[in-house]
Amino acid sequence: MRFDFTNKRVLVTGGTRGIGRAVVAAFDKAGARIAINGRSDESVDKMIAAMTGKKRLFAAAGDVGTVAGCESVVGGAIELLGGLDILVNCAGVGVDLPIEASDESTWDRTLNVNLKGTFFCCRAALAALRESQGSIINIASDAGLMGNPNSSVYCASKGGVVNMTRAMALELAPGVRVNCVCPGYVDTDMVRRDWIEQDDDPARLEQMLCDYAPMKRMATPEEIAASVLFLATVEAGFVTGSALQIDGGSTAGH
Ligand SMILES: NC(=O)c1ccc[n+]([C@@H]2O[C@H](COP(=O)([O-])OP(=O)(O)OC[C@H]3O[C@@H](n4cnc5c(N)ncnc54)[C@H](O)[C@@H]3O)[C@@H](O)[C@H]2O)c1
Known about the structure:
The protein is α/β, with parallel strands linked by helices. It has a single domain, classed as Rossmann fold (3-Layer(aba) Sandwich), CATH 3.40.50. It contains 8 helices and 7 strands. It has helices spanning 18-29, 41-50, 67-81, 104-132, 152-172, 189-196, 202-212, 221-232, and strands spanning 9-13, 33-36, 57-59, 86-89, 135-139, 177-183, 243-246. Helix 1 packs across helix 8 (221-232), helix 3 (67-81) packs parallel to helix 4 and helix 4 (104-132) packs parallel to helix 5 (152-172). The longest helix has 29 residues, at 104-132. The protein is globular and about 50 Å long. The two termini are 29 Å apart. The mean pLDDT is 96. Nicotinamide-adenine-dinucleotide is lined by residues 13-14, 16-20, 37-39, 63-65, 90-94, 113, 139, 141, 183, 185-186, 188-191.
């Protein structure tokens, strides 16, 4: 599908790396004007410098793990873009820990960004999205649709994102559509640098992650980005409250 988002105003949180970076690149290719969020000015500036369509890219650095941070990032983006058509909540942290090793700081670190940050970015964007009859796409996870061992805190955060997406879709219809994407394992820094490269046996872990999906590989960030753009199109105008699985079949048997 060829996407055309000419002059559409988009904010992508967590847009400097991994899935978020691929989402920014795909919207850029489709002609959108994009505010890019990342935690630091430096990471966002570096990202913008590396992209081609620089005139349509705007910096919206800040921590979306706090309410004040969400309001400042979203408010700043709306000001720079002159409104907002599409909000993509992609900022997230991955945590893989057994219950006994998960303490209050694990809970706060994970939930603050993955769930609270998603909620407060949506809330801060609402007036602008109501005006544009826009759309929200949250990046959840297959871990939001089923349980994974040693991952109860992450699963709680992503399960929250899935059901919050449904609740928001009901509350905001028919004006604003709200959907989420549920990726399986995606070959990004979160998986490769934080998990595979930290493991005692990286080759074994990589093979395990690939074998997890019936399709026998991880997704590419670009495959997740394509589903995000689809959900933002006019053609997806009747899609709201959905949790779109892009997981190589990993949740099909659950
Ligand atoms: N990689 C996977 O296998 C996978 C699978 C399912 C879901 N996801 C989800 O997709 C999203 C993106 O993951 P990824 O794999 O690209 O990870 P990544 O670690 O490569 O990128 C995460 C991005 O979020 C940003 N971020 C984190 N905390 C932030 C904060 N407080 N404020 C602003 N930005 C912040 C990071 O700077 C980075 O740009 C996350 O929500 C993740 O949970 C990833």
